[in-house]
Write a structure and sequence with these properties.
By secondary structure, the chain is α/β, with parallel strands linked by helices. It is built from 15 helices and nine strands. The strands form three sheets. A five-stranded parallel β-sheet has the order 2-1-3-4-5, sandwiched between helices. Helix 2 packs parallel to helix 3 and helix 9 crosses helix 12.
Length: 456
């Protein structure tokens, strides 16, 4: 077994650093683990001239030795390696080196191990091979920033503990100082709460590797949920949990048959029916080990439960789980069921070629009315129809062919968009957002896109 080496020149490794914290002025240390030497060299070339120190190892055992020798800012590990797997290495790092931010390299066809790594190793992000140069560097930069946030939290926790001991000895005149310190801690934890959005982005990137309609549906449903939550004046915490659940509620369908997304549920064959029935459980299991997403996972697990199911009531224990349903969870499930069913019916009709949006809209409303008081909460159905009935549905009659440089936010695709090689990247009737525009630019720069058609 060869010793790992530092690829940056001149070498910056220092002996006997043990587990002492990284001092101010040192470069962030990135440990890259892969049994393919050309991958390690590629990472070296990417970071030449940047203020980081690259340390490499060719297997998991060697990486553990390096982690024990000196602190690492970021650990980037391949999944498939001889001996210790990437998932096992990340799990070890999570336990023994919690401040080291973990990033995983995986193949596009390795979705199961990617999800397993997120569950077991608390992965910050994952990178698919082959990767985009700029995106890889951006992920490492974000990981370094996250590492600094974790270190700040540790320092703040220690600081608060010390201050609390002192504050107990002070008189009431020091109350203002206590409040100031408390405000700082609360601000820090709010920032950490936002960092959990990184977990959602990692899961959304996994979903993008499946059928393109999965992420499209979840994003449209999340917007419906946001609008409905505001309409119902829900509590902020409930609304945030519900939105997270909406963004991820089709995670369990990433391996579902493509025909499932083009049919009404009543026309599913046995394979499609099985995928549909089990997707809430698979989605919940995929995020169960991310603490901040556990409440969203409970919503995903139960969102298809019918309104007339007497076992699905506040105070009931979820079958097979040691969890008691509270009123907010039940309400969130019923809201998500309505929004998802409406959006699925609405967009499915449009993708079948029905050009009259009013007809698609009315058909989606009919589905909700047909399930009122059986599948769907009748009061929520009435409120939802009140909300969406005020929407202005635009009928598109003319389409326009444009170049990529003319594509801007707010435009609506009139035809599915593909890469030059025929790989689907965005469905028909998808609204161009800033995030989607950035993703399409990467495709256009690397592989080129087919001709773009939008509604005038």
């Amino acid at each position: 077994m060869s010793s790992p080496q530092t690829l940056d020149e001149p070498a910056r490794l220092e002996e006997d650093t043990a587990l002492s914290p990284i001092t101010e002025g040192e470069y962030p240390r990135i440990l890259v683990v892969d049994d393919e030497v050309h991958i390690l060299k590629a990472v070296q070339r990417m970071f030449l001239g940047r203020d980081v120190e690259i340390v490499v190892a060719t297997n998991g055992e060697e990486a553990i030795e390096k982690l024990a020798e000196s602190p690492m800012t970021v650990l980037v590990s391949d999944q498939r390696m001889p001996g210790l797997s990437g998932t096992a290495l990340l799990r070890h790092a999570r336990t023994h080196f919690p401040l080291t931010v973990r990033v995983m390299l995986t193949g596009n066809n390795d979705l199961a191990t990617a999800i397993d790594a997120i569950n077991q190793g608390a992965v910050f992000r994952f990178v698919s091979k082959p990767w985009d140069h700029n995106e890889f560097i951006a992920i490492i930069d974000a990981a370094i920033e996250h590492h600094e946030l974790l270190r700040s939290k540790t320092r703040y926790d220690q600081f608060v503990e010390e201050q609390n001991l002192k504050l107990r000895e002070l008189n009431e005149k020091l109350e203002s100082r206590v409040q100031a310190r408390t405000a700082e801690v609360r601000k820090l934890y709010r920032e950490l709460e936002l960092s959990f959005d990184a977990s959602i982005k990692a899961l959304l990137s996994i979903m993008e590797l499946g059928d393109i309609r999965i992420v499209d549906h979840c994003q449209h449903t999340a917007q419906r949920v946001r609008d409905f939550s505001e309409y119902l004046q829900l509590d902020d915490v409930v609304s945030r949990t519900l939105e997270r659940a909406a963004l991820l509620h089709w995670l369990g369908l990433i391996n579902a048959p493509a025909e499932l997304f083009r049919k009404p549920i009543r026309d599913f064959d046995a394979s499609e029916q099985a995928s549909w029935e089990f997707h809430p459980l698979l989605g919940q299991q995929a995020i169960d080990h991310v603490p901040a997403l556990k409440p969203a996972g409970e919503v995903i697990l139960n969102y298809l439960r019918n309104y007339d199911d007497e076992s699905f009531r506040p105070g009931k224990v979820v079958e097979g789980h040691d969890v008691t349903l509270d009123a907010n969870t039940v309400l969130s499930c019923r809201i998500l069921n309505i929004c998802s069913a409406f959006e699925r019916a609405f967009t499915r009709h449009r993708r079948r070629g029905i050009t009259d949006p009013h007809a698609s809209f009315e058909d989606a409303i009919k589905i909700l009315k047909a399930g009122r008081a059986t599948v769907y909460d009748p009061d929520l159905v009435d409120h939802f129809i009140e909300l969406v009935s005020g929407e202005h549905v635009v009928t598109h009659n003319q389409e326009l062919a444009i170049g990529f440089d003319a594509l801007v936010q707010g435009m609506v695709l009139s035809r599915p968009l593909e890469t030059a090689q025929g790989i689907p990247v965005a469905p028909r009737d998808m609204i161009i957002t800033g995030e989607l525009l950035a993703r399409l630019k990467r495709f256009n720069d690397s592989n080129g896109l087919s001709e773009i058609f939008v509604w005038e």
